[in-house]
TrEMBL record:
GO BP, sorted A to Z: glucose metabolic process; glycolytic process; intracellular glucose homeostasis
Keywords, ordered alphabetically: ATP-binding, Glycolysis, Kinase, Nucleotide-binding, Transferase
Family from the record: Belongs to the hexokinase family.
Top-rank taxon: Eukaryota
Species of origin: Dentipellis fragilis
Name of this protein: Phosphotransferase
Length: 534
């Protein structure tokens, strides 16, 4: 075995690499702000240059009315919705999901867009009450076409509210003859071929949808942010601060415009992010090395993989293993074999009530060494969890802590495919520690992104120790994504960073709320904007 006293320093060293103090957070945020402003000014290849005007020039306040169609092309499903905005911050939504097969994802783009049109057709035909806004007596041709908003969350260079050119496919899509084409035109051509009386009036990014949808239900919103498979945000900017727009052919109709930050791509040159060997391994083995650098520190797709890299390194530690007696399960050996959802479960197991096992707990027979009684050992607290010089057994820790570790062990057995006898209480403690340092860093960095927007919009002057708050009243932020919804303490930790970066006054004013049905309601609201802006 490794000498017990040599192990704690190894873990401390890893933890230090993941640690972000106030100074680090401030310098990261300052650099983002600079990258970001550069992105607002120019198109190009440098950091932040994917920052994109969206041509959405108004934010709802909850009084909007009308019935709109929304189409959402996500990873696995195509969703068609009919959204009725009631004008009192509430809405009704009818929706249908249609599967997008591998053949559609990878075949000809025309086939994919024909399928989208077919799905809208099927949805309209199946409508129980017809489309509410259309009086049935009118002749088809005399009616205005039904306005539809398309939520399309792939990188697009948007040139008008209803025009955007696909830059690249992501998330397993590779349909041919789409890159460089106008997505709205591809969809409209498919509608027209089928003589559908539907007009695609708006192309919406999911972050913009999140912002608009929260604005509608909260009566206003300044930022829409996604913390799910990926991460991104969109916020409201002054047109005069977007020099990129100077060559735009589109006539602008207001002083504000929503900007898609594409913040997942910040710091692609990695000059400010504290990159560890575990991050480098992830990046090197990813399909997009040196791209989406910030996203790789933050989002659901990657957190599990960073954690897996730490655990594998501890399993392989020389001269002697630190974890799982040197054994790696199939899941642990598998690239992306540890989902961030498992991290959530591990943290939940740790946070759970002390007593009374729940149905989730798999009863695990303790390995003999763990059950050996140490009658003279003091019952110690959590401090000994990572102190390998002290025995960690049922006899040496409080029942509360023991119970939590046993629950974690159950998750490891159930979700990482380990035999119970290969998972000691110490292993459980180490796994939970690894999850917590990776997730904590992600949540703190997420706070930097929100701070950049608060600073950019002038809610605060200066950052860190120089932060001075401006104005008063709530600052509504709409969020979506499994990570922020389900990961224990994610928002609380994000707020910790915000307090350091923009001060407590602003942090308290920031009102984070889930954007319910963001992509459907957001696309409907965007279609409404488009009709207004026409
Ligand atoms: P998307 O971003 O694709 O629209 P989600 O917001 O559901 O979808 O995010 C999916 C991502 O969130 C996946 O990477 C998955 O690993 C992760 N995830 C799912 N459930 C949880 C959870 N309970 N805790 C943390 N992460 C989760």
């Amino acid at each position: 075995r490794s000498k017990p006293e040599t192990i704690k320093p190894i873990l401390d060293d890893i933890e230090e690499q993941f640690d972000l103090d106030e100074e680090a957070l401030t310098s990261i945020t300052t650099q983002f702000l600079a990258d970001f402003n550069h992105g607002l000014s120019e198109y190009g290849e440098a950091m932040g240059d994917d920052v994109g005007p969206t041509f959405v020039q108004g934010v709802p306040n909850g009084t909007e009315t009308g019935t709109f169609l929304a189409l959402d092309l996500g990873g696995t499903n195509l969703r068609v919705c009919q959204v009725e905005l009631r004008g009192d911050k509430t809405f009704t939504l009818r929706q249908q999901k249609y599967k997008v097969s591998e053949a559609l994802k990878t075949g000809e783009a025309v086939t994919l867009f024909d399928y989208m049109a077919d799905s809208v057709d099927a949805f309209l035909t199946s409508s129980p009450s017809g489309v509410a806004s259309l009086p049935p007596s009118l002749d088809e041709e005399e009616k205005d076409p039904l306005p539809l908003g398309l939520t399309f969350s792939f990188p697009v260079e948007q040139t008008a509210l209803d025009q955007g050119y696909l830059l690249t496919w992501t998330k397993g899509f590779s349909a041919k003859n789409a890159i460089g084409r106008d997505i709205v035109k591809l969809l409209q051509d498919a509608f027209d071929k089928k003589h559908l009386h539907v007009k695609c009036v708006a192309l919406v990014n999911d972050t913009v949808g999140t912002l608009l949808s929260r604005a509608y239900t909260a009566g206003g919103c300044i930022l829409g942010a996604i913390f799910g498979t990926g991460t991104n945000g969109a916020y409201v900017e002054k047109v005069q601060n977007i020099p990129k727009l100077k060559n735009s052919a589109t006539v602008l109709r207001g002083d504000d415009m929503i900007v898609n930050t594409e913040w997942g791509g910040f710091n692609n040159s990695r000059t400010v992010l504290p990159t560890t060997p575990f991050d480098n391994k992830l990046d090197r083995e990813s399909i997009n090395p040196r791209k989406q650098a910030y996203e790789k520190f933050i989002s659901g797709m990657y957190l599990g993989e960073i954690t897996r890299n730490i655990l594998v390194a501890l399993v392989d530690a020389a001269p002697h293993p630190i974890l799982f007696k040197g054994k790696a399960s199939d899941a642990l050996n598998q690239h992306y074999g540890l989902d961030s959802e498992i991290m959530s479960h591990i943290e939940e197991a740790w946070n759970s009530e002390a007593h009374g096992p729940t149905a989730e707990v798999v009863t695990v027979k303790l390995p003999v060494s763990d059950e050996t009684e140490h009658p003279h050992a003091e019952k110690l607290t959590e401090k000994i969890l990572l102190d390998f010089t002290k025995p960690l057994t049922a006899a040496t820790i409080e029942p509360h802590t023991l119970h939590r570790l046993q629950r974690i062990r159950s998750v490891i057995v159930a979700r990482l495919g380990y035999a119970p006898e290969d998972v000691s209480l110490r292993d459980a403690a180490v796994v939970r520690w690894a999850c917590s340092i990776v997730a904590r860093r992600a949540a703190l960095l997420s706070g930097c992104a929100v701070a950049v927007v608060a600073r950019q919009m002038g809610f605060v002057k200066g950052l860190g120790k120089d932060a001075v708050s401006e104005g008063e009243g709530p600052i509504a932020v709409g969020v979506d994504g499994s990570l922020i919804q389900f990961y224990p303490q994610f928002e609380a930790t994000m707020r910790e960073a915000l307090r350091l970066l923009v001060g407590e006054t602003i942090e308290k004013r920031i009102d984070i709320g889930l954007a319910k049905d963001g992509s459907g309601v957001g696309a409907a609201l965007c279609a409404l904007q488009a009709v207004k802006q026409q």
